[in-house]
Design a protein that fits this description.
- The protein is α/β, with parallel strands linked by helices.
- Helices cover 31% and strands 25% of the residues.
- The chain is built from eleven helices and 22 strands.
- Strands 4, 16, 17, 18, 19, 20, 21 and 22 form an eight-stranded mixed β-sheet that branches.
- It is elongated, with a radius of gyration of 22 Å.
- The structure holds pyridoxal-5'-phosphate.
- Pyridoxal-5'-phosphate binds next to strand 15 and helix 11.
Length: 409
């Protein structure tokens, strides 16, 4: 099955229209009041978390990486169904703390945390993932200034790389984490300082569709964490194995085999982690895998024009809201995200058109030469895989077009 058809099946078809939260797209558009908009399907968020729970060992805790989609309603919804949040800025931290999730289940990662952010994190009581030795100095100072003992973990930059990741964030020199070879010194220093050292975190890459690679990276990560814990002679209470589970964006992408990842994680937990760290919280942290497929970006056709034999559907949205679909967010070669004419699902696919945004730049392509039903001004174009790294990963001020609405449906 193509990626697009699998997504159509997930969302559903009501009377020839894409269903979001069970409602036909025209009704969802009327509710939004204007186009373009992002709609996130609540049911699909629940389904995805349930799939993860079924596949992963029950003792593994699920952390949602808020940076993938920080919309407060999404974070609130997930607060009831995941175990923890991973945040990467003070503002994300405040969004996570607005939910029922307790501060000790919020971890704050990311390079370049300012002294002010560290003080906020210390005051809030979240787990601060240290990204460098300098940050350790600053967090100790923040603890003294705030009058609270900081809860800290060390993010470790492993010596190994995770192949096949869309974005590599570990192995070699990195701005992320403390190199594995110097981590023991930092850990022993933390153990002598006025901080509560809880554990270790490795996040080495993102957007990986290969179960075998994820499995071996989880095993290597677990082995590294156990080795560091042994060396330090400390019983960790927090072990964060990272994530990196990818979603299929392009027609040729093969979706991740989640059950294979889950099976391997069962044996990593039983063979590597539990014998050494019987009572640690074991955490997997995921962003796009949880929210990416639950979101669509919907934009209306403003103009249909033919230029020297090529058909263009010009829409009222574009890369200023959904940069990733234009191919300008981490892609090397531009390929199309799955796209449909959301109010004409049952019409024959008898046209080929390029869906282009309204921004005055040739970069604003949302779908190049896509096989679609014939569409006219007023029709609704829906672009899938917009639930993660959509609106907040886009240059919204570029060209000063109106904002996009966001809704949880
Ligand atoms: C970005 C990030 C994530 C989430 O990555 P996804 O590809 O969205 O799953 C998780 N952890 C950390 C530390 C990150 O920086």
């Amino acid at each position: 099955m193509t990626v697009r058809n699998a997504l159509l099946e997930r969302f559903g078809n009501v009377g020839g229209e894409l269903a979001i939260g069970g409602e036909p797209l025209s009704i969802v558009a009327a509710r939004a009041g204007s186009t373009p908009f992002f709609a996130y399907d609540r049911r699909l968020l629940h389904e995805r978390v349930a799939e993860l729970r079924a596949a992963l060992p029950s003792e593994v805790q699920l952390s949602y990486a808020v940076k993938a989609n920080p919309m407060p309603a999404v974070v609130q919804c997930l607060s009831g169904i995941v175990d923890r949040f991973d945040v990467a800025s003070a503002r994300e931290m405040l969004t996570a703390l607005d939910t029922d999730t307790p501060a000790r289940r919020v971890s704050f990662a990311g390079p370049g945390k300012t002294a002010a952010e560290l003080s906020q994190a210390v005051a809030a009581g979240v787990t601060i993932e240290l990204e460098s030795e300098g940050e350790a100095d600053r967090v100790i100072a923040a603890g003294a200034a705030v009058g609270r003992r900081p809860r800290v973990a060390v993010r470790v930059n492993p010596a190994f790389e995770v192949k096949g990741s869309g974005m590599r964030m570990g192995g070699g020199p990195q701005q992320f984490g403390v190199d594995a070879e110097v981590a023991p010194q930092l850990i022993s220093r933390l153990l002598r300082s006025d901080v509560e050292f809880v554990g270790l975190h490795v996040f080495a890459g993102s957007q990986n569709l290969r179960a075998d690679i994820l499995a071996s990276s989880q095993r290597q990560t677990a082995e590294l964490i156990v080795q560091l814990a042994d060396g330090a002679g400390v019983a960790l209470s927090y072990v964060n194995l990272g994530g990196g589970f990818g979603i299929p964006y392009f027609e040729t992408d093969v979706p991740l085999d989640l059950s294979a990842v889950g099976q391997s994680l069962h044996s990593v937990v039983d063979e590597v982690l539990r014998p050494a760290l019987p009572s640690a919280d074991i955490v997997v942290e995921l962003g796009r895998y949880i929210v990416g497929e639950a979101g669509v970006y919907v934009t209306r056709v403003v103009d249909r024009k033919v230029s020297r034999g090529k058909t263009f559907l010009v829409v009222d949205g574009g890369l200023h809201h959904q940069l990733a679909a234009s191919g300008n967010f981490g892609q090397v070669i531009r390929r199309n995200y799955p796209v449909v004419v959301g109010n004409r699902l049952d019409a024959p696919t008898d046209d080929v058109a390029s869906v282009v945004g309204c921004s005055c730049t040739p970069l604003d392509i949302l779908g190049a030469d896509v096989a679609l039903p014939h569409a006219e001004p007023g029709d609704l174009i829906a672009i899938f895989q917009a639930g993660a790294y959509g609106l907040t990963a886009s240059p919204t001020a570029f060209l000063s077009h109106p904002d996009a609405v966001e809704m949880l449906v």
